[in-house]
Every structure is written in structure tokens, then in C-alpha cells.
Amino acid sequence: MRLPDFTLHQPRTLAQAFAVTRDGPFDWLGGGTDLLCNYKWRINVRANVISLRRVPELRQGLLGAGRTLSEVEHDPVLRARYPAIAQAASMIATPLIRQSATLGGNLLLDTRCWHFNQTAEWRFAHGSCLKAEADVCRVLPDPGNLCVAAYSGDLAPVLLAYDARVVLAGPSASRSLPLREFYAADGIRRFRDKKPDEVLVRAELPADAEHWTVRYQKLRLRQAFDFPEGGVAAAVRWDHGWAADIRLATTAYDSIPLLHEDLVAPHRGSSLDDEAIEQIAQALEETVRPMKNTSMSPSYRKKMARVLCRRALQDCRPQGV
Amino acid sequence: MRDGSASPDPVRMSQELTPDTTIGQRLPLVDSWEKVSGRGVYIEDMRFPNMLHARMVRASVAHGLVRRVDLGTARRVPGFVAALVPGERGTDIHFGVLPISEDETALSAPRVLYQGDIVAAVACEDELAARDAALAVRVEYEERAPVLRPKDALQETSDPLHARSVGGTNIHKTVDQAFGDVERAFAEAHAQAGGEFRFHGVNHAFTEPIGCIAVPEPDGRMTLYSATQVPHYVHLALAKVLEMPLHRIRVVKPLVGGGFGGKSDPFPHEMVAALLARKTGRPVKVIFDREEVFLNNHGRHPTAYRLQVAADREGRLTGLDAHALIDGGAWASFGVVTTYYNGVLSQGPYRLPAFRYGGRRVYTNKPPSGAMRGHGAVNARFALETSLDELAEQLGTDPFDLRAQNALPPNTVTLNHLRITSNGFLECLERVRSASEWDRKFRRLPYGRGIGLGCGFYISGSALPIHRTRTPQSTVHVKIDVDGGVTIHSMAADIGQGSDTMLAQCVAEAIGVRMLRCRVLAKDTDTAPLDLGSYSSRVTFMAGNAALRAGEVIRRKLTHACARLTGRRAEDFVPGGDETYVHRDEPSIRVRYDDALAEALADNGALIAKGVYRAPKLGGGHKGSGAGLSPTYSYQAFVAELEVDAETGFVKVEKVWAAHDVGKALNVTAVEGQIEGSIHMGLGQALSEEMRYGGGQLLNGSLLDYKIPTPLEMPEVEVHIVESNDPEGPLGAKECGEGALAPILPAVANAIYDAVGVRLREVPMTPERVLAALEDRSRRERRAGVAAGKSA
């Protein structure tokens, strides 16, 4: 299958990149492992594609947006100090895809839906949907014009669990904001206020990140290749055997990666024993609202939220506890 | 030498292999180097001057009548050259792989039968233009209610999908067979087991997408290059559709990147390419997207299977009662054979005194089903082997013992007249029972870990050819000229399974030279003699025998030359190693191959020889007696050990022990590869692969959403090659590429039962289904517990 026609721009600086954005409709390209698949299926193809591969600023820092997932997976600093990030990266797609795919691309991953990620012929036969060529949702009869396609990145829940920030650069200014304020619960809009011509430069971890134990659990049929059907990241800051602070984040259960503050709040300062973990896990199962738009059934994915959550939290406990 | 043509007798090679032999060794396939170095030429690699790219316009509805095909703006797409639309000559000529059910046409009109059916096609200067033009074609349909559920297809209808379906219904084929007294077997049964099983459709998912190039030749002939398993059947279908004599058509098979039965029909796109090439006078190329491969399908039939098996007090099987409702999708394909195979191939490897089978294959408005590795036997085998596991438990006997007790002996005839000759089934059982430490593990592993047995039985080449013909099923030509190289011509289709290597091995062995001398030209109907193609696990057995016979003829010419050179008798010369012929009684008399060849060539020119194979006449006289007949059968016993995550339903197969009676392993590496590959493919159907639909629309037509196991899902496989040395097989060989698929599915299901105590009867056994079975059991236990509590 061939790619459709588009103009590929390969700027060497952010300034050059921003200049191209004025040429008309465009897409940013990191590794291209997701975007170009969509292009082959004629999904929302734009006339210009601006590759950020050659922009050095994006490759700087531990969590530079332009670093490949393979680099993230094998980074010795990440593996030693923030192993959940390296581990989550290692669970994305396949080794080959991780050679091209980037950290930024995974954080900015387009939402996915069985009614959307299909060939042009398929969509036209089906009548297409909100997120592509039509104005109707095929998942919910009345989604209130919000698209319920699933956010399926694996790094976002882990970075939410670390309470990371993201740094954006635009033509006129750069800015930094907490990742938890970055996404919007709409599979089409996806971001609260990221402007199209803003670029994700890097993610940053808070100063106390190393004091947190973070673990990620991913639900998928195969141990490689598959996007998450559910994902739970748990983070605990231990203080002399007490869970001084806890965070819980999910992916693939909604059109947005979510931080579940309410669920863990009652257990802050507890010993996070089996009973506490079960309460949190059960609460999470009751909270998530997966849609019927991925491979596994919503009821199974919901049930598995509990298992993933329990396992992630249990994994956070010090060895031997 | 009589040229061996009429003889149904096996080639009796001397028992000893030649000193230069490759038989029984580990060899890379002859095309390995070109493939791994990227130099191998597949359809996608081929270009011709002035070549056009065609794209199919596919039906957007599951069932309807085509009212109008409007090329609309397609003509204005830059690069548009031509279109093929309903009504054009040749587009409505019927063809199909089985002459008894030719129901396909190049274009599906006026009626489209599934979403993805080919309605029209465009040919453009490049692939992108073809895609844009195809998307621009507007087709108006008068939509009809689609028939999606097989049970609905059983009903009478005023508007059947096919004119030739059974009695006003959408039933394509009905098979009813009974042998022995089934009613009595069940009335008197001491124990019986079985149930209702459900199998979802699976696709071959070969690596190389389907494609072809039709090239109109300057002299008016038509050449079709196609990724096909069956060049001969494609040849026949093209002749019909193009209304041209066979000799005006040439079919060439380049390297093929896997077939597994999914390239074993003549297909509409091949006809479309040829018709467009004729229309434009230019070469026309078609390459399917992966989604189109799934839509073209011809994969394993979705099936509802009902089975009961009975045994007496001593554990002897007394009866089998089986019924299959088989979802054929839109077209007939190999479906008549499938309908028979779902029953008749359950007659082994066990003795069955009573047997009843009812099979219904129905047409529905879904992508057509067809032949797929283990054709017709896989789903039925799952039902039988899991029921035997249940039966063994009821009888309080070990599953191995039950099977060994009921094993067919060698050299016998089954109730339905299958002739059993070589049979290594008992050895298969013994090998895996011991290797897997079964007796230590079965029913003794901790909760969540389990071990299970699944067995199998498969044809080694269909004895009856598809077409009524007196022509041999395989013919092989061998030519040697002054360069001393051995050229082998055959139309056996190497689709990655290694048949070219097998031919080279057999011919080298028969002549007594090194295999490196051999070159196999098995791809071109202009030069190669007839072979029916790669399906029904027939190639090693049939083409291998033909190759041996051709090689024997050559060897005789060479030993006659030895006789002339030495004054001794030709019959006394045997291969003596290092490419010599040595006198068997006077080892000092030795003639080099080169010298023998020079003598043989003198005055006569190139050595030319032919060998043929035709299956012996087999079978009983009952209706459908031809189905399942094979000159011999393969046998399998597989053990799987696995882990079930009872919280999630995930199954992780840790290890498989696979014993397969292959007759004789000609190339150990290739045999192991076939068995390991079969297990990988079988595990896909067992655990994760499933074609899913929303209405008539395929939902997961991509390799992301159609879940083939990755290497991480693949267990360690320990292959045990069992060699029963088949009396009629080439050097004792029989099939190994298909029979090895079926046993892994029930082995996994039985191991799941051993691990967590639930029986899965719906395949694939996804985590959701395993978990649902576990939850269902918990609910039943709770209810039983409550009831017990009340009564106490």
C-alpha cells in the first residue's frame, strides 16, 4: 500500500519548522509509525508533513520528545532511576517500531477507534464517523459531539503517575504545564489548549520523582504489537513503611489518560495493605467506562481494570512485604 | 525403461541411501539464499514496460443488486486508462476450483454477495491513481437483506443467494453418511461425551499479499504471473474466462510468500487482470492490500459442530455421531470437499465401529471460506479430541491409554473404506508421553498449570484428482546436457514449504549425484509438465514419487553408459560416492559421473527423462466415497503444557511436545519447520485469531487487529519425528505440513481443563472466553453450595 501524496518538510531548527506551518494544513511527524499508517488508510491526510526528526532541541534531555522509544527503553539513567518509564516504553508496539517511534509521538498519540482506524473503503461503506469524514458517532448514538475514541498511549499514564510536566514550544513562546492539565476528554480535540503550531519539546519529572515507586500494568492480547486495551500506572511514595502519597493513572479506558486522585486519597498515609489495594482496585473498576470500540469487550476491560490496578499497586510495595 | 507412466506401483528404491545422499539430513532450502539476501523475486518486485496498475472496486454492501456502475470522476483522475465494468465480455463467465461448483465470475454482478465482492476494476498508470480512481467509482445498489447467520441460511427463501443451492434454501452442500449401527452404539454406551462446539473463521494471513500481473504477449498469447499454489487450475480458469485454448495461455509462478490454502483457488482478480490486459493491450498488475487479502479470504470455515462419542465398559470406542453447520460465505470454493472432510477425516486414527455424520455447508453474505492448512479436519478434530479427553475422565482411564487402546492398526481399512498402510501413531503416543513426563504431571500439577494431549490424522495427498482426468497427478521431467547439471521441470508449486528442495533431493538421490548439481524450474506452464499444485498435502508424496522415477530413468541411462565403458552389466553399477558409479561385486571398477555422462551423451545428445505419479484406485462405492481417500495418512500426538491466569483468563503455552509420523523425514530442517509453523498457526486459531464482523462488515482486516501470535506467544516446541517408512511414499515419506496443525488446538483445550477445570468449546479460547468459563463455573458452584446448604 502506498502513501498518498504530501509534501515532506524536514526542518533542522524549530524556527524553520514554525515557518513551514504557515504553508497550509500540516501534521507534525515524530517517528511516523502511527501517522503514516493512518495516511495509508487515507485518514485525515494533510498536504504538508513536518518531520521533527532533524530538530536537535527535541532530542535533548532525559525525556526529549524526539528520543526514540528504543532509546527510552534502553536508557541507563531511566532504567536505574525511573524504571517504569523504560518498562512502559519497552511494552509499546514492537522492537522494530520502537526504533522509529518517539516519546513525543507516544504522548501525542492520536486516539483510536474501530470505526475510525480503518481503510477509506471501509469507512465509506460504513458511513464514516465524527473523527473522519462524517458527523455521527458510531459508538454512542449521542456522545454530545464528543469523540469517544480511546487514548492508547503507554507513556502518559506512567508520566502522570510521576506528575510530570510537558514543555511546549510555539512560534512566539515556550511554556511548561503539568501533564495532568494537557489532555482534553475529546477524542478529536484531544488537548485542552495546545495550539496546532505548538511542538512538544520534552517531558520533565518533578524533583521528588525518584522518591516514588511507579509500576505499570498493560492489558493486551499479545505481549508485543498491541495497543493497550487497558493500562494502569500506580505510584507510591513510601515513608517508613507508610504510603505517604499514592497516585493512580489509567490509559485506554477513555479518550484521555486519567489521573484518579479521588480513588487513592482515602488511602494516603495508610500501609496500603491488601484490603486497601482491593478497595482502590474495586473503585477503579467501578470508575472506568470503556467503550465498545476496541478489540476486547468493554465489560472485560472494565473487569481487568481491577486486576491491573491490584497488580500495579502490589508491585509498588517494597519487595518482601 | 518403460517410462513408468502407467504403473501405480510404488518406486522401489534400494533400501540403502546413496553415499552422496541428502535424505534425512538438515538442509537449507534451495531458495534460501535468494530469499534471505533480498534477491528473491516476488510478484511485487516485478515490473514490465508500460505496465498498468489495477485496483478492484469492491461492494460496499453485504448483499444487493448492482443497479448502476458510474465511473463518474474516476475517468478524470490523472493516469486513468481503463475500467472493467459488469456486462463486458468475460466478466460473467463462471469458474471455480471445483468443476462441480463453478460459481465465481470476474465481476460480481448483478448480485453482490459480500461486502468486499469485486464489482468493477480500474487500471491506471500508477498505484496511487488506481486507488483514487477506484474510490471515485460510484456504484448504486438495490440492497437486499443479508444472510449472515448460518442457521438462517438453512431456511427456505424466495431469493436464494445462488441459483444452484439446495431446494430453495441457501444450503450449498449436504453430506449424510452412516456406517454401522450408531443408534445402538449410543443406546448401549457405557460412557459418552461431547457437546456443541463453535469455531470462528480464521484467515491464512500469509506474509505475501495476493497479487498477479497479466501480460498480453505480442503474438496474442496471454501470460499471467501469479502468486498461486495452483498454476494449473488458474490456467484452466483463465482459458475458460478468456475463451482461449490452453496453449495460448501461460501461467508463471514466481516465489510465493506463503499460501496455506489461501492461494489455492483461481481468483476473480486474476481474471480481472487478464481481462484488463486484453482490453488495454498492456501489462496489468494487481497487488492486494492486507484488508483485501482478508476480504478475499477463502480461510477456514466458521463452524458450529455437534459431536458425541460413545465407549463400552472396557473403554473401546463404539460410536461417533457428528454434525457440522459450516459457514461457506459467499462462494463455493473447495466447500464440497470441506463438507466431507469435516466428517470423514474423523475416522482416524481410531477404530470406530459405528459412525454417523451430517454436514451442511451454507452460503452467507460474508467473505468466502475455503481451504486452509489442515483443511476440513481442524475443527472436527478439536471436537473429537476434547470429547475423548472428557470420555477418558468418565471412564477413569488415562487419555493416552484410551487412545492407544483404540488406535487403528497399520494395514487395515476403516469403516468408510480409507486404506490404512504405514501407521506410526502408537510410537507418536509413546514418544510424547515419555518426553513430556506425562505420567508425573497429568492431573498432578498445581492449580493454574496444566498439561493436555491432542492427536491427529491427515491425508497425504488427495487420491482423487479434482477433475475427472486420466492424466497423472504429477509429472516431473529431468534433463542433463553437456554441462552436467541436472535440470528438473515440474509444476509443483513451491510456496515456501520447500517442494523445490524436495524435488532436487529426490532426483539427486535417484541419479546418485550431489544435490548441488540440481536446479529446479518449477514455475512455468510453458516448460513444466503438469502437476496439480500445492494443496491436500500431496506434493512430497506425488511429485516426489514422480521425481524419483524420472531420476531412476536417468540413472539407468548412466549405468548403461558405465556398462559400455567397462564391459560389465549395467544392473551391477550402483552409486559409489563422490559422484561415481561402482560395480557392486568388483569395487575397483568405478566410473566417474562425468565419464558416464559423456558416454551417455555421445551420439544421443541430452539425457531426457520423465517420471509420473498417479494414485492407486482406492475406496468403497458409497456416495462421497472419494472424499478423504489418500494413498497414505500421517499421524500425530501432541502434548501442550501451559499456565492459565485465573484472574485474567490469559493462557500462556509454555511447551509443546509434537510427535508426527512423517513416514520418512527427507529434510529434517524442513520437517521441523513445517511442524513448528503448524503449531504457531494452530495456536493462533486456538487462542487469539478470529475474523470479526459488524453485520456483514469485517471489523479486523489488518495484521494489527487480527491477532496472530507473536514470537513472544510462541512456546518452546520439541519435535519428535516418527518414521514409519511408508511403503508407497517417496523414500518412505508422507505429509508433514498440514496434519501438524490440528492437534495443538485440542491439546491446549485439554491442558486448560487440566489446569483450571473448565472445558472451552468456543474457539479461539481468548482470555475473555476462558475467564467467562471460570466465572460461569464459580456461579454454578455457588448455586450448588447454596442448594447444598439449604438441604443440610
At a glance:
The complex is a heterodimer of chains A (321) and B (792). By secondary structure, chain A is of the alpha+beta class. Chain A has helices at 14-20, 35-40, 69-74, 76-81, 83-90, 95-100, 103-107, 120-126, 155-161, 261-264, 274-287, 298-316, and strands at residues 7-9, 26-29, 48-51, 165-169, 174-178, 199-204, 212-219, 230-239, 242-251, 258-259.
Overview of the structural elements:
The complex is a heterodimer of chains A (321) and B (792). Chain A has 321 residues and is α+β, with helices and mostly antiparallel strands. Among the domains of chain A are: 54 residues, Uridine Diphospho-n-acetylenolpyruvylglucosamine Reductase, domain 2; 108 residues, 2-Layer Sandwich (Enolase-like, domain 1), CATH 3.30.390. Chain A has a four-stranded antiparallel beta sheet with strand order 7-8-9-10, with helices on both faces. In chain A, strands 1-3-2 form a three-stranded parallel beta sheet, with no helix packed on it. A three-stranded antiparallel beta sheet of chain A has the order 5-4-6, with no helix packed on it. In chain A, helix 2 links the parallel strand 2 and strand 3. Chain A is globular. The mean pLDDT of chain A is 96. In chain B, the strands form eight sheets. Chain B has a seven-stranded mixed beta sheet with strand order 3-5-1-12-9-10-11, sandwiched between helices. In chain B, strands 7-15-14-13-8-31 form a six-stranded mixed beta sheet. Chain B is 27% helix and 23% strand. The relative contact order of chain B is 0.13. Chain B is an alpha+beta fold. Chain B has 18 helices and 31 strands. Chain B folds into three domains: 155 residues, Aldehyde oxidase/xanthine dehydrogenase, molybdopterin binding domain (Aldehyde Oxidoreductase, domain 4, 2-Layer Sandwich), CATH 3.30.365.10; 186 residues, Aldehyde Oxidoreductase, domain 3 (Alpha-Beta Complex), CATH 3.90.1170; 318 residues, 2-Layer Sandwich (Aldehyde Oxidoreductase, domain 4), CATH 3.30.365.10. The N terminus of chain B is likely disordered. Chains A and B meet through helix 8 and helix 12 of A and helix 2 and helix 18 of B.
